[in-house]
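Entry for the shared binder. Reason: the reviewer on the internal report wants the predicted structure included alongside the sequence.
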Amino acid sequence: MAVTAHVGRGMPLSQRQGVISTPMPAGLPTVADLRRAGAITSLEVVAAIDAYLRDPTAGSYHFASGHNLDVAALVRASPAFVMVEQSGQRETTFRTVLAAAIMAARPTPP
């Protein structure tokens, strides 16, 4: 007997359009892709977060691989950061949201 996963209103997952089965568009790799490939380290992601928290106006973060990421632009473009600020959450929450945003971002290649 086959098991079918259901999401929302009893619709099988396989019948929902654009939820999980839609592939990501081809293009530049994300920071997460580059980290998995070993081009960017986890320590560099933490350093990018620290650099932004020290000076949000510092400009792009330059990874050792030559990739660049404008962390401030990423923060400005995401409504998630407005929600975190409005909720009065601590720095740890901001760091967690920022780490997720950085990992999903597509840095400029070298």
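Summary line for the report: The chain has one domain: 25-104.
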